Amino acid sequence: MRKAGGIVSLIGSILAVFAAVGTLFIGGCGSALEAEGASTVIGLGWVGLILSFALIVFSVMMISSPSTSRAIWIIVLSIAAAIFGGTFVAICMILSLVGGILAYVGSKQELQTN
Fold first, then answer.
1. Regions of the chain where pLDDT drops below 50
2. Which of 40, 45, 73, 82 is in Cβ range 3.0-4.6 Å of 23 for a Cys bridge?
3. All structural domains of the chain with their residue ranges
4. Three-class secondary structure assignment of 40-91
């Protein structure tokens, strides 16, 4: 279940990268048209992109070795990205959050059986 959670989180993180790029594109178009609040949208896109890349790294680390701390980091980063990354990134972070919870439960079970 740990590997499945890592893979689900990885898929959600990759989708969130595309969502963050879309947010950056929308913010850039708004900035070009001198729309109010466009710089806020651009900031949300950058935060979403950075947190999505961090989640990709932790998801791959979760797949390779059992550790509850990595699963907790996936959950915390998913929540942070959902809050600070914008709407499109938040939708993708639901998948990553579910993967983090699966990875946490799976790594707990693996550590108890060993």
1. none
2. 45
3. 2-113
4. HHHHHHHHHHHHHHHHHHHHHHHHHCCCHHHHHHHHHHHHHHHHHCCHHHHH
